[in-house]
Amino acid sequence: MLRQVTAIRYVTPLREGGSLPGVVEADDLGTYVVKFRGAGQGPKALVAEVISGEIARRLGLPVPELTVVELDPVVARAEPDEEIQALIKASAGTNLGMDFLPGALGFDPVAHPVDKALASRIVAFDAFTENVDRSWRNPNLLVWHDALWMIDHGATLYFHHNWPRAENVVHRPYSWDDHVLKPYATAVKTEGPALAARLTPELLEEAIALVPDEWLDDGDKNRYLSHLSQRAAEPEAWLP
């Protein structure tokens, strides 16, 4: 399981996201962006965050540390917004935290050129996880201390929203026409296969094992492993 911390103070909401994540302080003196299990997307968005984020980390891609944040509804008492109070109360227990990067800038593809190898690896990763949320409209990339960081993977793995149909789409191709890094990903034909070769069942199982059991139904971990292992075995079906 991921490292676990306990929220001690709700700091502020981040209203850019549809799920209304918030910044909290925790008992380890760290500050985290929390995605709440009581948000509209439900626990599946948190599962996708963990699996995709931890796959990316094992591939050497830049993802802030992910944690499990234990949340007591009493934290909501200091929040005047009734919508946020209700969200916190509905999210008692374990939630997903991402290390807060203070002062980080939103990625601008014009102002922030990206190395072609890194851009190509990110595109290949997004193709594998079927990430529909790294577009020009919503890059889900930050620049912090002159380095690129990948965030917000709740929209990946959308096959898990319909398990009965998942087997039929395991080798679904990936459309990257709108990908924000496409202009920089000029090495995807070489970096893509190299990344795909590292997507072993062992790597995938390590990432899946980190998801808290209470976010899953019985047998889900085996279903994720089977689906993703099958997809990894045929990269020619999904690599751009």
Written account of the structure:
This protein has 240 residues and is α+β, with helices and mostly antiparallel strands. The chain has 2 domains: 4-99; 105-237, no CATH class. Helix content is 31%, strand content 18%. It is built from 7 helices and 8 strands. The protein has helices at residues 43-58, 82-89, 116-129, 163-166, 188-196, 201-209, 220-233; strands spanning 4-13, 22-26, 31-35, 66-71, 93-99, 105-106, 141-144, 147-150. Strands 1-2-3-5-4 form a 5-stranded mixed beta barrel. A 3-stranded antiparallel beta sheet has the order 6-7-8, with no helix packed on it. β2 (22-26) and β3 form a beta hairpin. α1 packs across α6, α3 (116-129) packs across α5 and α6 (201-209) packs antiparallel against α7. It is globular and about 50 Å long. The mean pLDDT is 95.
